[in-house]
Design brief:
Chain A has about 325 residues and is an alpha/beta fold. In chain A, about 45% of the residues lie in helices and about 15% in strands.
């Protein structure tokens, strides 16, 4: 019987998590492109979580968190506040395990995101679009329903779930010099750094962050948690700041953090769309943009890039 | 020694063509989507030529045509007039076989397309953006250079090359009830219908055409070639009209032609982008739009869809 993880995931925890969630997630492909290798000057291996269920890696962590709940906890459901991929992932994971999801969403969240969450059978509770309103509304929901709060990243079961993406990448491409992952709240990055440490210790993990939301960069190099104030970037999945759990792992296991601006992110995203014919979201393009901006660092090496997701709002999006 | 095909390709011709071009093209994947199957009410198999070299099936026909030239012909190069995927495909095929490509392009062709063709080392000859200017310019080029004109579709070697996409699809998915291919000049459709006839005779081939460029629909049902006058559609790869060679094959081997309007095409394209996270061009979406518009025809059947390409001009494109 698996239980929720209460400390930094061990290699056994990540193995067990992978076994636990394997049948509920896609093992996503690792794609390559001769054209992009030529442009970047290195050997790129894209781990395509844009093809994951709900279109993002978040499915891994949410599924692991729900799979580890006790039978009694499952009776009361799960809850979170999110307007993004974690909301959809938790809604689908809850449905998979026959329990209820309560999702607190800001009233100005895009309709397409609300529809996705509602489509998985979750109950949406609207609140004012402020962090304070989100937190107080979530607290009221948890009190009313006794649902378990599943934090989008400050949660070791979630981190262990996100770690399975890098674990698969390492299994498929065993000789990587670098793995690059984008960083927002740090769930994907911390999990990636743990998997590299346990399963491919020679591989360096590099974080990619937008300049307009560079709290991880500042926190990492100043040695203390410095959350972003009014972050702004087209990489809308990376607006959140690190949490105590993710920051502690990242400080220990990540080699460096590089930042890029939104123009660089857009150019990288366009290259992938045009040359590889796959849709990646801006948050994923940040990682590829780091390679294009620092070619001398990665020259002729084997680079794994975690493509975190492919959810783009086409009502809004255009390149020009 | 292979030679250019001078009559309707036989099953042996298509086999030989596939062997001839196999090492120069990608064997593209056949993708499926549970979500899109639910929406469409049938079992969809997408043959993804958007992942083909130059981003389109045109690479197959152009490569077959160039591979079949005599050594003497190869000395003088190849020529065509095209502003689209055939131009890029012929340029790359020519480079592959160490010969020269002369591409007549209208002066108003998008810069991105000119750059692609020039990037493969072809010589671009600009002309006024009229059919008459294209043809007279091409004639002058051929006279000057003695290059072999490779027509984008009215050419049996090209048709046999395009037929290899459906041949691969049938090899991968042997029990298809339908294969749907978009129709512009008819090279892909005629080749597809030949492969189905030879390699999977129970499979019906359906053509998909934009309402605004419905010459194939009219020609097919009236029994004579009726070229489009001023065709207009967002499916810019399907503006051309059938030719004598393609029409004759289509008349004999295609079961039906369905048309869709541009709004239906856009909606189908958006569904694929959003749900499958792959980029398909409007000309490809026309085929999926036919399924969505005629669900009762395809209900519960196994449907192959040829995704003809993934070349979208992101300078221009937006959904709204």
């Amino acid at each position: 019987m698996s239980v929720s993880l209460s400390s930094v995931p061990s290699s056994e925890d990540i193995f067990e998590s992978h076994n636990l969630i394997g049948r509920y997630i896609h093992r996503t492909p690792v794609l390559t492109s001769v054209l992009l290798d030529e442009i970047a000057g290195c050997n790129l291996h894209f781990k395509c979580e844009n093809f994951q269920k709900v279109g993002a890696f978040k499915m891994r962590g949410a599924t692991n968190a729900v799979a580890r709940l006790s039978e009694n906890d499952l009776k009361h459901g799960v809850a979170t506040h999110s307007s993004g991929n974690h909301a959809a992932a938790l809604a689908l994971a809850a449905r998979t395990f026959g329990t209820k999801a309560y999702i607190v969403m800001p009233s100005n969240a895009p309709k397409v995101k609300k529809n996705a969450v509602a489509g998985y059978g979750a109950e949406i509770i609207e609140c004012e679009p402020t962090l304070a309103a989100r937190e107080s509304t979530l607290e009221a929901v948890v009190q009313r329903t006794k649902a378990t709060f599943i934090h989008p990243f400050d949660n070791y079961s979630v981190i262990a779930g996100q770690a399975t993406a890098a674990k698969e990448l390492i299994e498929d491409i065993p000789n990587l010099d670098y793995i690059i992952a984008p960083v927002g709240g740090g769930g994907l990055l911390s999990g990636t750094s743990l998997s590299a440490h346990y399963f491919s210790p020679k591989t360096k993990v590099i974080a990619a962050e937008p300049e307009g939301a560079n709290d991880a960069f500042k926190s990492f190099y100043e040695g203390k948690l410095l959350p972003s104030i009014n972050p702004k970037t087209i990489a809308d999945g990376l607006l959140t700041s690190l949490s105590p759990k993710t920051f502690a792992i990242i400080q220990e296991r990540v080699s460096a953090i590089y930042t890029v601006n939104d123009e660089e992110t857009k150019a990288a995203m366009r290259l992938v769309w045009e040359r590889m014919k796959i849709i990646i979201e801006p948050s994923s393009a940040v990682a590829f943009a780091v390679v294009l901006k620092n070619k001398e660092v990665f020259a002729t090496t084997n680079v794994g890039i975690i493509i975190s997701g492919g959810n783009v709002d086409f009502d809004e999006f255009k390149f020009n």
